[in-house]
Sequence to fold (384 residues):
Amino acid sequence: MSSNPDFSDSFQQALSASRLPKEQASSLPADCYHSENILQQETEALFRRHWLGLGRADRFNQPGQYETIEIAGVPVLLISDRQGKLHAFNNACRHRGARLLDGEGKCRTLRCPFHGWVYNTDGQCAAATHMEESLNFDKSQLSLIEFALEIHAGFIFVCFAPEPPDFKAHIGDFDQFHSPWPLADLVSKRRQSFEVACNWKLFLDVFNEYYHLQYVHPDSINGLYLKPDPGDATTGNYTTQFGETEGTGGLLESQQQYALPNIPGLQGRATRGTRYTWVFPNMAFAASKDAMWIYEAYPLSAQRCIAYQTLCFPQNAIALTDFDARVQYYYERFDAAVAEDGIALENQQKGLASPYSEPGPFSPSMEPSVADFTHWYAEQMMSG
Ligand code: FES
Ligand SMILES: [Fe+2]
Fold:
């Protein structure tokens, strides 16, 4: 592994310790959680180089439906064109760079708010006034800048790199571990975002480990989760761990009687637990017997992130006449867990922000996915 000339020797040594087998590895240097300089390195080494998970594709199921999001300094416009094809564009006009759209909504065409250039939903420049005398105005050369986009198992993946890494290599043997769940068929219901005063990696760390359940969620969900299986050995840029549950992990312990029917086709242990998966760097999800919940996390600064939560259900549950009433209990469970995690994360951030904090060891059985991400992260950062 080559070294990154931007990092000090001691920082590189600490990153090397994060690349040891999980029984010996250390967590990342505390700088990785509060330094703006490290965030800049992450932006180059992770966010501008790798495939990023942007949640579910089915929220763009109508022509012209769009969302805007800022990802590590890149304003992105996700929009479904007239044929229903999803695009990820640089959200900036080809005239003098104004942002084209804000928020989310539905449109027939895009009109730049600055000087009125018009684009089709597939990114083609359609019209501009007062450009007759410009020798450089050629509409066909002025389509919106488009990023690579793949849809896999119903998830959107976008890559900013002009030459994206091979998507198949990115996703590796993902399908093998997720084949019991018909992921592509699950339907998005509630999607919401919230800011947390912690580094983006901490948000994903806590989602992917069982260790904190007993201490952070003692009365809400801890009792549902049995000791998990060991983390699975995977190929590709992801990690995953399955664990059995008592009832469903999608509801509070006290509200299990509102459980929705199982996802059709599930068999064996998949009907008795939850698979937690983290697709590096920024998206994680849990596939359970009755639902799937997904989080994307993006940095706002080194010490603040925005997270998007999406909850998905199978069509057979959504078709029930009392679905709208029963799904409220699922929402309650996620609101409760996010509130409890938020307190823990903001507290962790304060400790990690100390200039005297040092990396610590992992529990290989209770937080193998955190160790796997740490290992992957250290490799990406060291290669510069
Ligand atoms: S910047 Fe968009 S039309 Fe001028
Ligand atoms: Fe949690």
Observations:
- Residues 351 and 357 are 7 Å apart (CA to CA).
- The first strand starts at residue 52 and ends at 56.
- The mean pLDDT is 97.
